[in-house]
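A note on notation is needed here, since sequence and fold are reported together in a single record. The reader may check this reading against the record printed directly beneath this paragraph.
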Amino acid sequence: METTRRDILLGGLAAAAACAAPAAARAAKPSWFDGVATDHGVTYRRTNFAVVDPRWRRQLVRYRSAEPPGVVVVDTRNHFLYLVFENQTALRYGVGVGKEGFQWFGRARIDRKAVWPAWTPPAEMRRRNPKLPEHMPGGPDNPLGPRALYLAANGRDTGYRLHGTTDPSSIGRDASSGCIRLFPEDIIDLYQRCPVGAEVLVLPHIAARAAG
């Protein structure tokens, strides 16, 4: 059978496509999400922890601290949040923290808690980004995520929160306007463990002494 130029061209294109397909599959980045979950009637994207660096996953660790059990310690330098337990242990969470110039450090208390909180961006934040809404109801697209723990100091709202995020890639980075971000699954867990009145200590430059 005679081989034509058209046959040769089509054969070459098929071979190129066959080689390119595996390369494209290898180059595709895994998704940060692996399905959906439902919480209090709200369906949200579930974090794919298979692609999360193991150090940012929630885990029980050895932790030396002068703080009593029940205190939340945020190590902004190393992007960890510790819920202090007894016997020099803590439950450690990976977090995203404030960008340079937006951080807040010190002691506060959890003044109130909210499930699927609404978000009202501060005026200064809207000045920096006029595209932000004046107000956003709670839900799967709200940047506060499924829970928020509101921090107060000296009887006043600090304006900062411990909350979830819709951007799991921000965990482990200086990415926020001062709030402390956790994976949605982690803020749900922390919300259940921390009562109103629990103390929160946000450290400025002290590296946590932890192993595990």
User: Anything to note?
Assistant: The chain has three helices and 14 strands. The helical segments are 5-27, 123-128, 184-193.
